[in-house]
Design brief:
The chain has one domain: Jelly Rolls. 9% of the residues lie in helices and 42% in strands. The strands form 2 sheets. A 7-stranded mixed beta sheet has the order 6-5-8-3-2-1-9. The protein is globular and about 35 Å long.
């Protein structure tokens, strides 16, 4: 299983949301998620696809969460989701982007924005 890394641009706001985002497209990668991490750097993220719900059981740090539609539209945002939460879900979502806590506020990313995913390298 090769690691795919992408960048995510908030096209609506004209800013880079995350420069180095690992794509978790395989079921095992989605299950593992960020459980093995102690933190996320400011420019790191995880894109779970396909996905419409997450949990933060056994995580060590809070995260910001973006639920994305099929066209990259932001359907829902969750700021500073703490560890050990049962789940966050949005039925219409096709992907979930997990980011360092506070990143959504710093970039002004909100519901209705359009995100563009660009493959690195």
């Amino acid at each position: 299983m090769s690691v795919v890394v992408v960048s995510v641009l908030n096209q609506t706001k004209g800013c880079m949301l995350v420069a180095r985002c690992v794509v978790a497209a395989h079921p095992l990668a989605r299950v593992r998620g960020l459980l093995h991490r102690r933190s996320l750097a400011e420019d790191e993220g995880l894109l779970l696809t396909p996905c419409n719900n997450i949990h933060t059981w056994f995580m060590r740090f809070p995260i910001d969460v973006v639920f994305l539609g099929a066209g990259g539209e932001v359907l829902r945002v969750v700021h500073m989701l703490p560890p050990f939460r049962v789940r966050a879900c949005w039925r219409r979502a096709r992907a979930v982007l997990e980011l360092p806590a506070g990143r959504l506020a710093r970039t002004g990313t909100d519901v209705g924005d359009r995100l563009v995913i660009m493959r690195n390298g």
